[in-house]
From TrEMBL:
Highest taxon above the source species: Eukaryota
Protein name per the record: G domain-containing protein
Alphabetical UniProt keywords: Coiled coil
Keyword Coiled coil: yes
Length: 550
């Protein structure tokens, strides 16, 4: 064999699977004979009971020699196939002059194999899934990390009953990843039946069994035939048997290793039935959590809105409190002072909004040096007016000396003031009027607007708070007394829940399982297949552990 076609590994692992009495253990006995020509295979009995009750392993080391057929002169002679019936029969007849032994080549590479024998598929009360799981659990717990070849043994002595067919279908259905590494080994192939006149339909029968495997796998699976009967000791029989074994071992070397940690198991119908029940349950949970999350988003947004509105109401009520009072505020004032000097008098006024009628304010303003009686002559009258306002005056404070108010209109309670006054004396005089109102009067319109807005906001707040209570119930974010209770914590919980629910749904909808999950499910009786409801309960418990759901 060309080593360039082999895959580098320290040990080549071969797993042997098959139904009860399919020749697994007998084949392994012949493997030992191949490695050690002096080994005497154990005669496994009549085949009426299974001899392997648990997974066993056996190491083998070999250079993969070919077994040759030698004549009485120890010369290598042609080794026929069993299809060369006449020559085959001749070697059987002349067996006393024939011998066989491995043809070893110096310097050949040593190959290490680990052979794993397993219990029959239908040993465990027909529960093939559980039996498969036990096999792979034992392998996993033993530290087996990969396989190079999987041999499924098939004995034509054992009819393909429905239970046998189901066992094979289960294997191929579960381990789709193994299909490319599987070889069907037809055991108990009685070479004597191939002799002339013994069994004309023999090949057709084996071909029919091969067609069965092709049908359930969907592909052409490599097949080999071997007569494992250790009682058949003719040199030609032993040589042919050993060389079939050599070809089997060669297949393990050229196969790419299948890493168990990366192996997926296809779901069976029973798994999908249980998964459908759990899927419906967790889809409902996801929908509920999604609605709660949306309600929580709305709750948080609405809670912020309510908080802002409450602050607005607080500010408005503060404004109302500050301005709805009788505190007096000064609006405007007018002042006139007249001084009489040696040659007359001067006068001045102070105001910006109050004006005289019919003259404007500039006509009342005197300049230094002007005679007072020129600006406001002795015994003259003037009219002073405070224009109409949008609000009423609360008071008009007047302080006069040597100036007489003849007539007055408006004032407190009115929105204007008007007075006619007269200067009756030439001595120093002054006239001072201050116009006032209260904060309540001055901001009456604002206060009305503020109060209307407060009432509107309070009505909206009450409506929003009722909605908050509904949203709290929908989102589970606290009681009605505290709309914002644990909102952030609840949001984090919902996000975590939705993430896990979605992962569970994706996991359930996947067509495959990681091998380790399959083993846990099978060994915990979660995929028995008898009752989907019971399987669903067990499957859900597994999922809750896997995805850390409380």
């Amino acid at each position: 064999m060309n080593d360039q076609n082999t895959h580098t590994t320290s040990v080549y692992n071969i797993l042997i699977l098959g139904p009860t009495q399919s020749g697994k253990s007998t084949f392994i006995e012949n493997l030992r004979k191949y490695v050690d020509p002096d080994y005497v295979p154990d005669r496994m009995g009549t085949g009426n009971c299974s001899h392997t009750t648990q997974v066993t392993s056996r190491p083998l080391t070999t250079t993969l020699p070919l077994y040759g057929l030698f004549n009485e002169n120890n010369n290598l002679i042609h080794l026929p196939s069993t299809r060369d019936q006449a020559i085959y029969y001749e070697h059987i007849v002349n067996d006393r002059n024939r011998s066989t032994r491995p043809i070893n080549v110096d310097g050949s590479r040593q190959y290490q194999f680990q052979i794993f024998d397993t219990p029959g598929l239908n040993d465990t009360q027909g529960n093939d899934v559980l039996n498969i799981a036990k096999i792979f659990s034992t392998l996993h717990n033993s530290g087996v990390t990969h396989f190079n070849l999987v041999i499924i043994t098939d004995s034509h002595y054992v009819p393909l009953y429905a239970s046998q067919q189901q066992a094979f279908k289960t294997y191929f259905k579960l381990f789709d990843d193994l299909k490319s590494r599987i070889t069907i080994l037809h055991t108990h192939v009685d070479d004597m039946k191939r002799l002339p006149g013994m069994d004309k339909d023999f090949d057709e029968k084996l071909d029919g069994r091969s067609d069965f495997f092709k049908k359930i796998t969907g592909k052409q699976v490599p097949t080999m035939r071997i007569d494992c009967d250790p009682t058949k000791t003719a040199a030609i029989q032993v040589a042919l048997r050993m060389n079939v074994i050599q070809n089997v071992l060669k297949m393990a070397i050229v196969q790419e290793p299948l890493v168990l940690s990366k192996t997926s198991v296809s779901k069976l119908q029973s798994m999908n039935a249980a998964g459908k029940i759990v899927c419906e349950k967790y889809q409902a949970k996801l929908d509920s959590a999604s609605k709660a999350s949306m309600a929580l988003d709305k709750l948080q947004s609405l809670a912020i809105t309510v908080a802002v509105m409450l602050e607005e109401v607080k500010d408005l009520e503060k404004n109302i409190s500050q301005h709805d009072t009788d505190d007096e505020i000064q609006l405007d004032q007018v002042r006139y002072e007249g001084h009489v000097g040696m040659f007359g008098g001067t006068g001045s006024t102070i105001d910006t909004k109050v004006f005289f009628i019919p003259q404007d304010m500039t006509g009342f303003l005197g300049k230094l040096g002007d005679r007072a009686d020129n600006a406001f002559g002795l015994m003259e009258e003037r009219t002073l007016a405070f224009p109409k306002q949008a609000y009423t005056l609360s008071a008009v404070h007047k302080n006069t000396e040597l100036v007489t108010i003849i007539e007055e209109e408006g004032g407190a309670g009115k929105n204007y003031w008007k007075a006619r006054f007269k200067r009756q004396y030439s001595r120093d005089a002054h006239f001072h009027v201050t116009f006032c109102t209260t904060k309540r009067i001055r901001h009456q319109k604002d206060i009305m607007t503020w109060r209307a807005k407060v009432n509107t906001q309070k009505d909206k707040i009450a409506e929003y708070q009722r909605e908050l209570g509904i949203l709290q119930h929908a989102s589970g974010a606290g009681d009605e007394r505290d709309p914002g209770y644990a909102a952030d914590v609840r949001k984090a919980e919902l996000i975590d829940q939705m993430s896990k629910y979605q992962k569970i749904l994706n996991y359930i909808k996947s067509k495959t399982l990681p091998l380790q999950d399959f083993l846990e499910l099978a060994n915990s009786n979660s995929i028995r297949g008898a009752n989907p409801v019971d399987d669903a309960d067990a499957f859900e418990k597994f999922l809750r552990r896997k995805f850390n759901l409380v």
